Every structure is written in structure tokens, then in C-alpha cells.
Amino acid sequence: MIFKSFEINTTLTSLHLSDNKIGCKGTKLIFKVLKINSTLTSLNLSNNKIGEEGARVLSKIIKINSTLKSLNLSRNNIGNEGKEIYSSLVINSSLTSLDLSDNNMGNEENLISKVLKNNS
């Protein structure tokens, strides 16, 4: 229900959905919204149990969305699928802040940090 309103909202710039247990299913709904939304610049999805499948969906969001500047994905059990996010950052040049802390990603976090330094 709430995601339907985002499809028609043309003024929302920041969305904070942390601690809502949206999981992968909710991530897919957000993906649909962000495919058509051109105003959102900040998205906080921390602690939502997105998991590895949700990380794959989020990497698609990062690839296609050119308005998002800040994305918080901390504490989502992303794990090794951080590689998908890394490859999407090579394509996206608008994202300047990305929080992936506490996701058990290992060395991927360091690689992502290097890529973000090139974004403006």
C-alpha cells in the first residue's frame, strides 16, 4: 500500500525505512518504485533482512537510478553478494554515500569504498 503512493509522488527526496523487516520481497517493490521515481536522493534500508537475494535486486537499482546520492544498507546480511553491488557502482556515478557496514562482506567493502571515491 505505501509503495503505491511513492509511484505518484514527485516531491519525495528522502525515504527512511530502517528496521521494517521488508526482506527481499519489499526490496523488489522498492525496485519497481525507483525505476520510475526521479526525485529520491536518499534511501535508508538498514536492518531490513534483505539478504543476498535482496542485494542482487539492489544492485539493479544502483545500476538504473541516477538520482540516488545516499544509500544505507547496513545490517542486512548481504554477505558475498556484495560483489553484485560493487559491479553496479562501476556503472553508477551519482551515488556518493553508501553504508554497507555489518553485512559480512569481507574485502568487498574495501573495493566498494574505492569505487565510491571516483563518484562526484
Q: What does the model show?
A:
The chain has helices at residues 2-8, 23-36, 51-64, 82-91, 108-117, and strands at 14-16, 42-44, 70-72, 97-99. Helix 3 (51-64) packs parallel to helix 4 (82-91). The chain is built from 5 helices and 4 strands; from the N terminus they run αβαβαβαβα. It is globular, with a radius of gyration of 13 Å. The protein has 120 residues and is α/β, with parallel strands linked by helices. It has one domain (13-117): Ribonuclease Inhibitor (Leucine-rich repeat, LRR (right-handed beta-alpha superhelix), Alpha-Beta Horseshoe), CATH 3.80.10.10.
Helix content: 40-55%
CATH architecture: Alpha-Beta Horseshoe
What's the shape?
Answer: globular
Q: Determine the structural class based on helices, strands and strand pairing.
A: alpha/beta
CATH fold-level assignment: Leucine-rich repeat, LRR (right-handed beta-alpha superhelix)
Our count of helices gives: 5
- What fraction of the residues are assigned to beta strands by DSSP? 5-15%
**Spatial strand order of the main sheet:** 1-2-3-4
Ends distance: 35 Å
Q: Determine and state the CATH class.
A: Alpha Beta
- The helix-strand sequence is HEHEHEHEH
Total beta-strand segments: 4
The CATH superfamily is: Ribonuclease Inhibitor
Rounded to the nearest angstrom, the radius of gyration is 13 Å
Q: Report the average pLDDT across residues.
A: 83
Unreliable spans are none
Summed up, the domain count is 1
Pfam family, one: LRR_6
GO biological process, one term: nucleocytoplasmic transport
Keywords: GTPase activation, Leucine-rich repeat, Repeat
GO molecular function: GTPase activator activity; small GTPase binding
